[in-house]
């Protein structure tokens, strides 16, 4: 069963509170999202396997531990998911990056796909899918389905900033093998399928579009 990981570190909660504030502009919003993504990355990658290696420090030879050849990929759901990539790449500089373009139909609230480009070896990598808002769960579920069916991905994790119970429920139903990492589980969706209390449209706030 998919597990929900709520990362409630004080620094993440502090930064998220500033992001929620309507007075926070695009520049600060982007910077805070990058910082939170870096901090969340520690938890998303906490269980990566390690292996011993022999090294020599300035003092002597010793056995240290490094990540055991685990290949990683980051796949943002366009466009808002792009805001989480730089933070993760700071932590995981050798990760490859794919892109999935989805937008939400304003009438049906269902996701529509318009772009998809992946690294050639994506199926052999642990894939971290990023999308700041897990609202209805439609976009994230469709993106995960595409990665599984079209690219053969079997190791997938979803990282979001804010989740709604409805989105979590859908994702756990559709993808019980994919763990969810979020900084907050909010109350509900409103009639327009926006998260309450949420932080508004993440894409608009990242890029300054209204």
SSE topology sketch:
Layout: E1 4-6, H1 10-20, H2 26-44, E2 50-56, E3 61-67, E4 72-78, H3 85-91, E5 96-97, E6 99-104, E7 111-117, E8 126-130, E9 133-134, H4 138-151, E10 156-163, H5 165-174, E11 179-185, E12 188-189, E13 195-196, H6 202-207
Parallel strand pairs: 1-11, 4-5, 4-6, 4-8, 8-10, 9-10, 10-11
Antiparallel strand pairs: 2-3, 6-7, 12-13
Helix pairs in contact: 1-2, 2-3
Using brief descriptors, characterize the structure shown.
single chain; 210 residues; alpha/beta; nine-stranded mixed β-sheet; two-stranded antiparallel sheet; 6 helices
Separate helix tally: 6
Morphology call: globular
Instruction: Work out the number of β strands.
Output: 13
- Average per-residue pLDDT, rounded, comes to 94
* Helix/strand order, N-terminal first: EHHEEEHEEEEEHEHEEEH
Main beta-sheet annotation: 9 strands, mixed
Low-confidence spans: none
Radius of gyration: 18 Å
Class of secondary structure makeup = alpha/beta
Strand content: 25-35%
> What share of residues is helical?
25-40%
Q: What is the CA–CA distance across the termini? A: 38 Å
Describe the structure.
By secondary structure, this protein is α/β, with parallel strands linked by helices. It has 6 helices and 13 strands. It has helices at 10-20, 26-44, 85-91, 138-151, 165-174, 202-207; strands at 4-6, 50-56, 61-67, 72-78, 96-97, 99-104, 111-117, 126-130, 133-134, 156-163, 179-185, 188-189, 195-196. The strands form 3 sheets. Strands 1, 4, 5, 6, 7, 8, 9, 10 and 11 form a 9-stranded mixed β-sheet that branches. Strands 2-3 form a two-stranded antiparallel sheet. The chain has a two-stranded antiparallel ribbon with strand order 12-13. Strand 12 (188-189) and strand 13 (195-196) form a beta hairpin. Helix 1 runs antiparallel to helix 2 and helix 2 (26-44) packs across helix 3. The longest helix is centred in the N-terminal third of the chain and has 19 residues, at 26-44. It is globular.
């Amino acid at each position: 069963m998919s597990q929900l990981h709520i990362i409630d570190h004080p620094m993440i909660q502090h930064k998220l509170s500033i992001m929620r504030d309507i007075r926070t502009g695009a520049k600060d919003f982007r910077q805070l999202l990058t910082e939170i993504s870096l901090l969340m990355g520690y938890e998303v990658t906490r269980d990566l396997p390690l292996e011993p290696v022999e090294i020599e420090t300035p003092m002597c030879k010793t056995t240290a531990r490094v990540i055991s050849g685990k290949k990683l990929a980051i796949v943002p759901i366009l466009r808002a998911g792009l805001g989480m990539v730089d933070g993760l790449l700071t932590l995981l500089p050798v990760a490859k990056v794919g892109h999935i373009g989805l937008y939400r139909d304003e009438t049906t609230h269902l996701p529509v796909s318009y772009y998809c480009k992946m690294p050639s070896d994506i199926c052999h990598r642990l894939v971290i899918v990023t999308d700041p808002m897990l609202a209805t769960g439609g976009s994230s579920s469709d993106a995960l389905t595409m990665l599984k069916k079209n690219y053969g991905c079997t190791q997938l994790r979803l990282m979001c900033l804010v989740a709604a119970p409805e989105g979590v429920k859908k994702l756990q139903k559709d993808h019980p093998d994919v763990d969810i990492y979020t900084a907050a589980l909010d109350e509900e969706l409103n009639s327009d399928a926006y998260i309450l209390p949420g932080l508004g449209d993440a894409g608009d706030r990242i890029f300054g579009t209204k």
